[in-house]
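Quick one, T. Sequence first:
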Amino acid sequence: MNVAERRTSYEICWEILVFCSVPRTFTAIVSRCDLNSKNGQKYLGLLVDRGFLTVGNNGERLHYMATDQAEEFIAQFTLLYKGLYDKGPGFRL
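Structure tokens:
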């Protein structure tokens, strides 16, 4: 993806879900996915409400983790993206 291009909401959700394949804190997610706090809350809330993320507590902080349902979204989005652009979604992991 060109730096000047803006990510779509689908790309942002995909990136969050891939990153949360292991438990992640809110701070780690917004930092890694380059989101501000307001947008981070919006996307995480959407993904939790839709059942793609679960919220857990490790005793000190909340953490988010992708669910089995998220795997289907990730697989389908990756196929669609590759079909459109002949490459996978580009971001650094």
